[in-house]
Amino acid sequence: MKRVLIVASMLVICACRLYAQTYTPIAVTGFNNDGVAETGINAEAVTTTGLDIQQKILYTFDFAAANGLQAGVPNDGLFTTGLRTYQMNDYTANNVLYMSKLGSVTNTVGTGTLTFTTPGAYSKISLLCFSTEQGSTLGITFNYTDGTTSAQIVASILDWFGGIDPVFDSYGRIQRLPAGPYNVEGLSSNDPRIYSIDIAPACENQSKEIASITIEYLASGAPSGVSRAVFLAVSGQAYVPVTVTSDVTKATCGNSDGSISITATGGAFPLTYSWNTTPVQTTETATDLPAGSYTCTVTDANGCPSDFSADISEESMILLKALAKPGDICSGTNTKLYAIPTGGSMRSYTWEPGNITDSSFTVAPDTTTTFKLTGEDQNGCHVIDSIKVTVTKKPAAPLVSAQSICPDSTAVLKIDNATTPFTYNWYTYPSGGDVEGQGATYTTPAVSTETTWYVEAVNGPCSSDRTAVTVTPYDRAITPVVKAGDITTSGVTFTWDPVPGATGYIVSVDGGAYITPSSGNTGTSHVVTGITNQESISIKVIALGPISCQNSLPGLASAKPKPGEIFIPNAFTPNGDGKNDYFKPEGTTISAIDMKVFNQWGELIYRTNQLTGWNGTYNGKLQPTGVYTYTVRITLNNKTELTRKGSINLLR
């Protein structure tokens, strides 16, 4: 079946142009002649054929300038007016499709095909063309990339001289000659004239990509049958499907006060609207609608319809809110859901999931769940709301191993089952209390006694049960009890009882380095020998534990070596009664002394190397009752020297 399109009046074209989208050039091949002189002075040299019986052709501005002519077509082949733009093929190559009935005119074809360089979908195709030797009738067929073709469309075009409603005019024409002078024709009558054939593909084909256009010359307007058709270029309006967005206003329960407002884009403008309402509404917004389903048919300027559907629901005058307190819970705990109406009362409620019909109830979902609440008011209208209860998994209690450490040292506690993204809080209380630290590890303060810490895993709002972990300091060995045993003038034997669990002992004499006892590593005695001129001897004994931090504290003891026959009193009474009136060392083995006495301020108040002793005076004056200190170096008969230091009480 043929579609007939008569391009004889620009009224149709103008109506389309008033609302149409832009026509943009489409690159095509399939031109069979060069009908435009573009350069030089030899029209025959730069063209292949004349376009009418008199061999008239078009020429460019550049050709006009070279030959002193007026007018001409654009040098770049770009024709533009309003929203229309056409691009001719290169003037140095074939640039027109030249046609006649059955191709009977020299250099013409009866059927030609313009092939798209890039196939595309178009809502409108425009062919830039004219006829010579009166009008021409053509049959136009679109060939699609899917292998289908359109029904042939019949269109007529007018002669390039004198036709009505051209798209472009007043370009002038000349005879195709090898040299000038050239005579420009038609300028005074605004000729020659160029027209357009505007064709909208069938609605069902507009989304298909056009691969080519086949043009068949059907009939000549001249009785002689010598009319020709000349096609210069192709432009098109890209196909954009109609899309619709909507804004729905609900109807109040039992009333016709809903509305649907749509915004349509795409298609060929102008768009028209038709709603399935009674009466039919024809604007973008349908009003005064009761609840129901509605369809709007949007039809573009090409007559292509698109249907859009929307639903209007009834809206109660009562507001209904679904609430959950709390909205975030931990697994295994409860929350309570509430239906809260505002502006009236509901006669029934339904909660899903669960098909619960109470206005409030307690739930303990295992996973995050959205509860849908449907309320029915006194008019039977439904109001819907929903609330999401977020369920966070309660973490498992952390696993932490107890530790034994050296006393007064720190411990690093580590969670064995630490999981990302859980966080961990450490406490000193089984519940409550301040957070002492955070993280999968925790370094304790120094620990001197058994201490317990508590740790919980935290996942968002959820905390696990607290795990107790105890840090126990190692026990020290019992401090040895040291006693001075055998004491002689030259040595002392120190002993101590065995300490349970001790692995050995070490000793330090008079603050010296620790050494192994003289009785051996595990012995319980140590002999200090070779003592000369020493008033006392001190010793420290440490019982060794399995590790160093289990060593005992030092056991202490001291002893004074026996001075032989030497006696130094610790008090004397210089009162002249003949008893204990002098302070001096006594002993049968003493052969000489060097003795000094100091008062409480450390002043030397007496010195002698005689064995008579001090009588309690200084510079002839009696010294007061009090404590004085002394130092005495004693030489024994065997030439041994002893030094003794101490204090003496002067009593009166």
TrEMBL record:
This protein's record includes keyword Signal: yes
One Pfam family per UniProt: CHU_C
Residues spanning the signal sequence: 1-20
Keyword Repressor recorded: no
UniProt keyword annotations, A-Z: Signal
Chain ranges of the Ig-like domain: 395-472
Gene3D superfamilies listed in its UniProt record: 2.60.40.740, Immunoglobulins
Protein name, UniProt field: Gliding motility-associated C-terminal domain-containing protein
Lineage, top ranks: Bacteria, Pseudomonadati, Bacteroidota, Chitinophagia, Chitinophagales
